[in-house]
Amino acid sequence: MALQAAASLVPAAFSIPKEGKSGVSLKDSAFFGLSLSDNLRADFSSSALRCKQKPGAVRAQIVAPTTPAVNKATPEGKKTLRKGSVVITGASSGLGLATAKALAETGKWHVIMACRDFLKAERAAKSAGISKENYTIMHLDLASLDSVRQFVGNFKQSGRPLDVLVCNAAVYLPTAKEPTFTAEGFELSVGTNHLGHFLLSRLLLEDLNKSDYPSKSLIIVGSITGNTNTLAGNVPPKANLGDLRGLAGGLNGLNSSAMIDGGDFDGAKAYKDSKVCNMLTMQEFHRRYHEETGITFASLYPGCIATTGLFREHIPLFRLLFPPFQKYITKGYVSEDEAGKRLAQVVSDPSLTKSGVYWSWNKASASFENQLSQEASDPDKARRMWEISEKLVGLA
Ligand code: NDP
Ligand code: PMR
Q1: What confidence score (pLDDT) does residue 71 get?
Q2: Pick from 336, 315, 335, 352: which is nearest to 219 by CA?
Q3: What positions belong to coiled-coil segments (predicted)?
Q4: Is the pLDDT of residue 232 over 50?
Q5: What is the pLDDT of residues 93-109, one digit of tens each?
Q6: Is residue 140 within 6 Å of ligand 1 at its C-beta?
Q7: Ligand 2 pocket, 214 CB below 6 A?
Q8: Strand, coil or helix: what is 357?
Q9: Angle between helices 336-348 and 94-105 (to 10 degrees)
Q10: Contact by Cβ (8 Å): 24, 361
Q11: Quick one: CA torsion of 240, 246, 252, 253, rounded to 10 degrees?
Q12: Could you tell me the end-to-end alpha-carbon distance of the chain, in angstroms, rounded to an integer?
């Protein structure tokens, strides 16, 4: 087993540029200045967001009127900003929980924790010390498109505004010998990490567009391991979507491969491929909707959070060696708290509202716009992946 763990830590190539080359943007912890209220959009055209709906799909419900994001409520006539409303998927552990905590602690955000295990989420929120008035848990299982549609229906019915959506949840199945599948029969990693989030964000785009908050955004968590322009992204198996033939075939492992590129099943590759889809999806959203809606679309690599539940399916020896390896050898390690602060920064820091960006942090923990690999920034692949994905989730 030791050999197995050691072997799995041997990289294929080392002559790869490190992440972290482009211009550093200074950290700015200031919250949105009240002057931002001047930038509020009065016109929320949703024409760009209309999409064909299948029979049975959840339709937008009438949303109860909410407090305007900025109002002149104080006796001195000072403008105040209402609490931002942010949905975070997979907020029951790891990065999602740490981000929920970081945002809730500011007192400026209400976090909707979109989780598949209600009790686990409730316990996690309590043990993280998130106070009751700052969070709501809503059920969401991304491995079921029905559940995604139900969540969207429930969210719309709640009457809450949607200012930021964070697509964070993920599964990683590196030791699986055979593929497992979502309720609709898609390979589980791509089905959960990409297709579930794809449907969720498409159905909630209209709500984001309606937000009158100074900055509204859709954030999809990416990763270094999906980017083959890095050392980490060159550790085999490498991400590669190929010509998307497996995705087009429905990833069902029956009449089509369970892998996006049509190859043999490999759980670690499926995860990395799903992260490439996440990063391509963010950019395709940006190209299609940013100009018209003003929504910020962003992705990020928060650092290597080697202690999270993401590695729960890995062999015990890997889980033992991985944190010290990342801490002392690659120095890519980041704590859950620090990673949560980074993602919270993308949610709420006015200096990180540029759209179409993949954020990373340097060793001094300063954010910068990072370069994506050739495949993860290929516009043609992004468009084809988008078109196939919308068929698979029943939007086209
Ligand atoms: P965790 O396993 O701690 O968190 C993943 C979360 O996703 C959990 O809350 C889990 O819920 C949830 N989840 C899994 N499947 C589903 C589902 N079907 N429906 C709803 N929720 C689901 O891992 P991390 O915090 O590390 O991962 C968070 C994000 O960070 C992922 O997108 C990952 O790709 C990314 N990332 C992580 C890195 C790392 O080093 N850890 C590095 C780079 C990116 P439950 O608690 O019920 O299991
Ligand atoms: Mg990697 C700078 C080098 C670096 C960084 C930042 C990471 C991050 N890794 C690096 C290097 C290496 N890793 C090297 C040289 C090796 C071979 C010894 C190596 C191995 C390795 C394995 C076996 N690394 C891994 C694994 C996993 O199973 C993790 C994975 O791919 O999950 C998908 C992983 C990771 N390394 C990272 C990060 C962030 C991960 C995991 C999380 C992710 O992408 O979500």
Answers
A1: 75
A2: 352
A3: none
A4: yes
A5: 999 999 999 999 999 99
A6: yes
A7: no
A8: strand
A9: 60
A10: no
A11: -80
A12: 47
DSSP 8-state secondary structure symbol assigned to residue 124: H
Ligand nearest to the CA of 171: 1
For residue 94, report the distance from its CA to the centre of ligand 1, in Å: 7
Does ligand 1 lie within 6 Å of residue 171's CB atom? yes
Of 4, 175, 224, the one to substitute when testing ligand 2's pocket (max ligand atoms within 8 A of C-beta) is 224
Ligand 1 close to Cβ of residue 168 (< 6 A): yes
Percentage helix, strand, coil for the chain under 3-state DSSP, each rounded to 5: 40, 10, 45
Our CA angle for 136, 114, 391, nearest 5°, is: 145
- Closest of 167, 178, 158 to residue 114, by C-alpha: 167
Output the residue whose Cα is nearest ligand 1's atom 12: 90
**Is 284 exposed, middle or buried, given 0-12, 13-18 or 19+ CB atoms closer than 10 A?**
buried
The tokens for 270 are 């499926």
The whole-angstrom separation of Cα 14 and Cα 61 is: 53
C-alpha distance from residue 238 to each of 13, 26, 243, 259, 331 (Å): 11, 32, 15, 13, 21
The predicted pLDDT at position 77 comes to 73
Beta bridge partners of 167: 220
Strands 80-81 and 367-369: what pairing?
unpaired
> What's the pTM?
0.89
293 Cα–ligand 1 center, Å? 29
* pLDDT recorded at residue 348: 97
Higher pLDDT, 43 or 47: 47
pLDDT tens, residue by residue, 11-22: 333 333 344 333
- ipTM of the assembly? 0.99
pLDDT digit string, tens, across residues 138-189: 999 999 999 999 999 999 999 999 999 999 999 999 999 999 999 999 999 9
